[in-house]
Amino acid sequence: MHIDPAVYVRKAIRSVPDWPKPGVTFRDITPVLQDPRTFRVLIDLFVYRYMRQRLDLVAGVDARGFIVGSVLAYELNLGFVPVRKKGKLPYRTLAEDYTLEYGNAAVEMHTDAVRPGQRVLLIDDLVATGGTMLAASKLLQRLGANVHEAAAIIELPDLGGAQAMRDSGIPVYSVCSFSNSDP
């Protein structure tokens, strides 16, 4: 029996109701990472998608984007760039602010992390409202990079983040999606 690889990965994602607050269902990728077969299937999905595309770097968003992004960069023989939460990088940085439902935050990168014209794949574990991914893409663009695509394991379409990315001109790929009504 053959199972679709994306369905296989989706089935391994744990749903945690009422976390971090009542009414929110947290989509936990930890079981995907813990199981070697599922983790390999996930990485292979990304590798097969991007292996023949002309890319220069993978940029991973703090923190779970580091896990998938660094492995993917290794598999594609590309460099990896961390997009960190503000205050975590030791060298000269450039920051981009964004709004959260409970306040403001910022992401930053080293000013020499990308060169003008480089084609970058931006990756994170999840696209919800899109604030972090949009800020990271703006940061990459301010440094002269071309964001080839934004990628995530999970898309939460009800929150509109992936659509906001598409509306800004950046294609989005996700392995699977969960709606608010999914258990």
What does this structure look like?
The protein has 183 residues and is an alpha/beta fold. 33% of the residues lie in helices and 33% in strands. The strands form two sheets. A seven-stranded mixed sheet has the order 5-6-4-3-7-8-9, sandwiched between helices. A two-stranded antiparallel ribbon has the order 1-2. Helix 1 packs across helix 3 (36-50). The radius of gyration is 16 Å and the shape is globular. It starts with a helix and ends in a 6-residue tail after the last strand. Residues 52-154 form the Phosphoribosyltransferase domain.
Strand order of the largest sheet: 5-6-4-3-7-8-9
> For the residues shown, what is the average pLDDT?
96
Which range best describes the helical content: under 10%, 10-25%, 25-40%, 40-55%, 55-70% or over 70%? 25-40%
**Major β-sheet, in short?**
7 strands, mixed
Structural class: alpha/beta
Bin the strand percentage. Answer: 25-35%
Would you kindly provide a brief summary of this structure?
The protein is of the alpha/beta class and 183 residues long.
Show the helix and strand layout.
Elements: H1 5-12, E1 14-17, E2 25-28, H2 30-34, H3 36-50, E3 57-61, H4 64-76, E4 79-85, E5 93-100, E6 103-110, E7 119-127, H5 131-142, E8 146-155, H6 161-167, E9 172-177
Parallel strand pairs: 3-4, 3-7, 7-8, 8-9
Antiparallel strand pairs: 1-2, 4-6, 5-6
Helix pairs in contact: 1-3, 3-4
List keywords for this structure.
Rossmann fold, 6 helices, EC 2.4.2.7, glycosyltransferase, 7-stranded mixed beta sheet, globular, adenine phosphoribosyltransferase activity, purine salvage, alpha/beta, 183 residues
